Amino acid sequence: MNPKVYILDDDLVHAKLVAANLGPGRLRTQVFDRPDALLARHAEEPADAVITDLVMPDLDGVEVTRRLRSADRHLPIFVLTGHADVATAIEALKAGATEYLTKPVNIDELTTLLTRALAERPLLEEGASLEQARGREYSVQAILGQHPKIEEVRAFVRHMAAIPRPTVLLLGESGTGKNLVARAMHYSTPQAVGRFVEINCSALPANLLEAELFGYKKGAFTDAREPKRGLIEVADGGTLFLDEIADLDPELQAKLLNFLESRRFRRLGGTDEIEVALRLVTATNRDLGAQVKAGRFRADLYYRITVAAVTLPPLREIKSDLPLLAAHFRDTFNREFKKRVPPRLGLAGECAGTAQRDRAGHDLQRRTHPQERQPATARAARPRDARPVSARPFPAAAGAVARRGRARIHSPHPGRHGRRHPAGGGDLGHLPQEPVGEAQEVRSPGRGAAPRTRVVIPRRLPFGNGTARASSGYNHLSGCERRSWRQPQGGYAPCDGRGRRSLPGS
Question: 498 and 470 in contact (C-beta within 8 Å)?
Fold first, then answer.
């Protein structure tokens, strides 16, 4: 369907002329000579774009633009005027006009601008919806927990979000959620229209970090072939989050202090000062007071960034919230990996028990990784008969011992005959007695060579858990350096002291 365009002008002839030149078949146009008629029609059936005159008897174009913009943030609005004036143009643009054109209007220019604005509107609406979804994801309610200390953190975030341009310091150990709190502070601000810009001060060298923060002019240094905006300028109207502020270079600390005092800065190689209005949030997992005493952090910068500070509690101080956090991460990774790991297989109890035993456990990432690993590696349960037999070798003390021609195997698993072997050893005499092999003594060529025994095991060997496995065939054995040798399947046969190994039934 063709886009719908409303045209408002007290000169109805001019409005119809503009509508005719925009071309039938490409746009659906409707003309109005009174602002109230246009506003009423737009409230009933919204237009895709509006073209309005600036000077009108009842309401001027600036007021009409302001009302339309309050109802629709992404509506393309074009203001036309026969009185070219810089002041009125600035006023119209501040009210929310998309473009400001003078009469007689160039139809080709108006058509090009209108087509471009109509094509960009879906992208703007999609970006706004994504921004709203991200705002819900990082809202204050995204800070999970019912502990009183978590409630204090949420109250702090709400208080800081109501302040236009605060300077906030987030303290806490690694994994306590400083990044989440900074984002919640940004997206909880009602008037926030800027971006959330984050940078880790320990991730870049000092010279590159300075260029990233303040930007540079063309030719400021060897590879500066084009000018670049700094992250401080990009975050204008939003939030700048400086993580690991304690690792900032001393020279860069001085430049950051100068910026915080005036909210002005100059790009590298530039002379013009740029003023920005942003919220600055810094974070560190170190003791900044100790850093100041040691001379590694400027005291004046420390006092400047600690205008409002909060310490985030580690997990060991909010152990009652561990089941809630574990359930949240289980559901999150179930959606990510498209699995359905039930709550009874979750790690909530294990995480809580681990935190109770581990006094130093505080890292949320450490508790998150098992929850992520379980849905990623989960698979459908297999039948009991299809479960693989454990290949863990028996310990030497639990091996087979030749006693009265029978092999006794210590095993905690019940056999196929429905009984569990006693702790002192399981008697396998009830199993079918079949020859399991023969031992042949051979001597290696050469003088004084130690005898070697070759054991041929052509059949399957029984084990204490009732499972039989096939032998690998031939086993070449050396002399009697040890008291017993271990079969590849995990059983043991004793040495008779003459270089031979006695086997059951031999």
Answer: no
Please, are residues 74 and 122 in contact by the beta-carbon 8 Å criterion?
no
Phi, psi of 457 (to 5 degrees): -120, 90
Residues 6 or more apart whose CB falls under 8 angstroms from that of 235 comprise 194, 195, 196, 197, 276, 278
Residue 134: what pLDDT? 67
**Residues 286-318 pLDDT 10s:** 999 999 999 999 999 999 999 899 999 998 999
**Cα–Cα distance between 195 and 275 in angstroms, integer?**
16
Give pLDDT tens digits for 354-391. Answer: 555 554 444 555 545 555 555 555 554 444 444 444 44
- Cβ atoms < 10 Å from Cβ of 464: 24
Q: Is the model's pTM score more than 0.70?
A: no
Residues counted in the chain:
506
Residue with tokens 């002005």: 264
Q: What are phi and psi of 242, to 5 degrees?
A: -105, 100
Give the whole-angstrom CA distance, residue 2 versus residue 29: 10
HSE-CB of 314 using CA atoms within 13 angstroms: 13
Beta bridge mates, 475: 455
| Cα–Cα distance for residue pair 351/216, rounded to 1 Å | 48
d(CA 457, CA 131): 70
- Helix, strand, coil % in the chain, rounded to nearest 5: 40, 20, 40
Residues 6 or more apart from 12 whose CB is under 8 A from it? Answer: 31, 33
Q: Which helix (H) or strand (E) holds 355?
A: helix 348-357
51 with 65: CB under 8 angstroms? no
| Residue environment code for 155-189, b if the CB has 16+ CB neighbours within 10 A, otherwise e | ebbeebbeeeebbbbbbbbebbbbebbbbbbbbbb
Question: In angstroms, rounded to a whole number, what is the distance separating the alpha carbons of residues 502 and 438?
Answer: 9
